[in-house]
Amino acid sequence: MLRNYIKITLRTIKRHKTYSFINVAGLAIGMACCILIVNYIVYESSYDRFHENSDRIYYAQNSVFDVFTFPMIIGNPTTALIVPHSVVLTESYAKKYFGEEDPLGKILRLDNREDYKVTGVIRDIPGNTHFPINMLLSFESFYV
Question: N or C: which end of the chain has fewer CB within 10 A?
Fold first, then answer.
């Protein structure tokens, strides 16, 4: 029975080539659009899911490393931003400014005005985040 259905389908496709092409092309375009839309929705809904408690993150008050789980490569997350004029860099910015040297304790001059001491390095943040950061400056620096 399935064999007969396949024969009839192939004969119909041969007999009505234009109509069959339009149907198959429409089906292919529809499926491609559906796949693209699903991929877009999955990407958009995955924003900031790399944080450990991403379902409970709303407002940040005292310490950014208590709220967000940025993976620290070098340094101590509890003391990294306590001292004024301290900075935590991402992995790519540490390589950009210091190459393969250990950046911990080095001085980084920002805007040719202020010097900041590197107190930590975090892993690069994925592209699907609301906080595309390259460096975190100590909030205490703005009170001094």
Answer: N
Which residue matches tokens 């210091």? Answer: 98
- Give 18-46 pLDDT, tens digit per residue: 999 999 999 999 999 999 999 999 988 88
Work out the burial of residue 81: count CB atoms within 10 Å of its CB; fewer than 13 is exposed, 13-18 middle, 19 or more buried: buried
Task: Spell out, as residue ranges, where the chain has pLDDT lower than 50.
Answer: 58, 60-62
For residue 39, the SS3 value is helix
Start-to-end C-alpha separation, the chain? 85
Residue 78 phi/psi, 5° resolution?
Answer: -75, -25
3-state helix, strand, coil in the chain (%, to 5): 45, 15, 40
> What is the distance between the alpha carbons of residues 129 and 134, in angstroms, rounded to a whole number?
12
User: 108, 141 in Cβ contact below 8 A?
Assistant: no
Residue 118: CB atoms within 10 A of its CB come to 24
- What DSSP string describes 37-93? HHHHHHHHHTTTTTSTTGGG-----S-HHHHS---EEEE-TTTTTTSTTEEEEEHHH
